[in-house]
């Protein structure tokens, strides 16, 4: 979808319709980062294409600088357009976490991205992010995370699809639920927390829960 021009053009609007409380979640993520990121700090943003959280962070924290990583050149172009003059505070990298600068940052965010990665690749990504963070630095993540037994998975995906439909998105609820259940490598909340610990993060705290989405703040050990 992130190479489809039509999907890219409607990304921001679609995210607003699909993710309950998206703007508030981004604001909470920024506040959690600001607890430990200094006023002139550097924040790594993985999955930064589109630029929604980048703009939210940059507008609220005029002294922060950013390392923005995304595999889609088109999505990064959208981020540059969304940021306008704020883009001067961002170093953009087209690629994945291993392509990010080998630079120690004061904090990191990865929103609505990790649910696309299978567990092994997700653990590798989290470890690579940990290596790019100072001890004690915060990482804020949020993505699909729900129980993996068939009954509960189906129930939470049904709720996600119903929310999206109620927001005005034209979709076949049953087809959406079936496709996501088969194709999206989401994990349970317990598995997500375990991977964060295994990747080298100590304290992990839940800050966001909205139907099929969960968000945590974790601190580099």
Amount of beta strand: 15-25%
User: Which percent range fits the helix content?
Assistant: 40-55%
Q: What is the overall number of helices?
A: 9
Sequence of secondary-structure elements: HHHEHEHEEHEHHHEE
End-to-end distance: 35 Å
Shape: globular
Radius of gyration, CA atoms, in whole angstroms: 17 Å
- Estimated structural class: alpha/beta
GO molecular function, one term: methyltransferase activity
GO biological process, one term: methylation
Keywords: Methyltransferase, Transferase
Organism: Stenotrophomonas lacuserhaii
Chain-wise SSE layout:
Layout: H1 5-9, H2 11-18, H3 22-34, E1 42-46, H4 52-60, E2 65-70, H5 73-83, E3 90-94, E4 107-111, H6 119-131, E5 138-144, H7 150-166, H8 173-183, H9 189-198, E6 201-210, E7 213-220
Parallel strand pairs: 1-2, 1-4, 2-3, 4-5
Antiparallel strand pairs: 5-7, 6-7
